[in-house]
Amino acid sequence: MIKFLDLKAINDSFEPELSNAIKRVLDSGWYLLGNEVKAFEQEYSNYIGTKHCIGVANGLDALRLIFKAYIVLGEMQEGDEIIVPANTYIASILAVSDNRLKPVLVEPDIHTYNIDPFKIEDKITSRTKGIMIVHLYGQNAMYPEIQKLVDKYNLKLIEDNAQASGAHYGEKRTGGLGDAAGNSFYPGKNLGALGDAGAVTTDDDNLATVIRAMANYGSSKKYVNDYQGLNSRLDEIQAAILRVKLSRLDGDNQRRREIARFYIENIKHPDIILPQVSDWVSNVFHIFTIRCKQRDKLQNYLSDQDIQTLIHYPIPPHKQQAYKEWNKFNIPITEKIHEEILSLPISPVMSQQDVEKACNVINCF
Ligand SMILES: *Cc1c(COP(=O)(O)O)cnc(C)c1O
After folding, report:
1. Are 163 and 138 in contact (CB under 8 A)?
2. Ligand 1 contact, 89 CB (< 6 A)
3. 85 CB near ligand 1 (under 6 Å)
4. What does residue 256 show for φ and ψ, rounded to 5 degrees?
5. pLDDT tens per residue across span 186-229
6. CB of 58 shorter than 6 A to ligand 1
7. What is the C-alpha to C-alpha distance for residues 162 and 165, in angstroms, rounded to an integer?
8. Are 47 and 248 a contacting pair, CB within 8 Å?
9. What is the CA(326)–ligand 1 centre distance, in A?
10. Is any atom of ligand 1 closer than 6 Å to the C-beta of 359?
């Protein structure tokens, strides 16, 4: 059986360092807001190339806190509009609507699955305050056209970097391209903890100060509360685990690229559309997606051949009950992607033999 993602095997490959890291925290007697978090924040901000990293409880909170902080700072207010990709995981959009900001959905480019930079300007109004780009499936979503709009309309650029830890845009890394970024270390992400974890990365001193306080009951000094905050902290054990795993992230991403390259060079089937790669370092292949008109049939066939696949994602945000006011929207490219997309197994511990087997089986569909 070829698993979609063998988390146990991935984490075993970091032993005994993970067990040692957990033991180190256990023995320290200090479990929150300590030296492991401080060290991880420093290491991750160095890695991404931002001045600040603030560890928080998860990726959704990282994104929510960015908007919450902009509201506290008076940069945004209730009812302001944020441009978001229609083709994304719903968490990107929840972060916006949770703050009573209005998500404005923009179609993706069918070749990259990321927000189409040429369809954004039409959606900008006098209430637009920001653009959120999502580096979906691990592929950079930043383009010079987006920077031009950010400059022209004086907008905040927020990145959802949950799927793309380590990806590049030119010399820079995603997560350090805009005003602030939300990062997720959910166990299945390229840099995954052993539970929930996330971080905000930013160069903005004021934003960083507010987010750090907001994530800790709105308090920067114990029992003094400046804001109506949350409790959203990264804990010491997860930080210690992430420090171990960050040290191998580039190598792990490189293995993902090798697998992706092998799939792209070896899957030859008239009914299967492969991802287009213009620049290999711009993609960390968090997810390797193909498209097929007979997607469900292909998935069943692969399952019968013991190859696990997943669908990212089966229902677009605007078709969810959670956003029923959008259900009648017609967003055809997003809908087409959701109907045809299929994610193949990929991970740093996947053997070459399994990659080859998956290609052969797919080619016989
Ligand atoms: C995983 C993910 C999130 C949310 O991260 P959590 O840590 O699970 O809260 C947000 N956006 C995208 C695109 C994601 O894939």
Report:
1. yes
2. yes
3. no
4. -60, -40
5. 999 999 999 999 999 999 999 999 999 999 999 999 999 999 99
6. yes
7. 7
8. no
9. 21
10. no
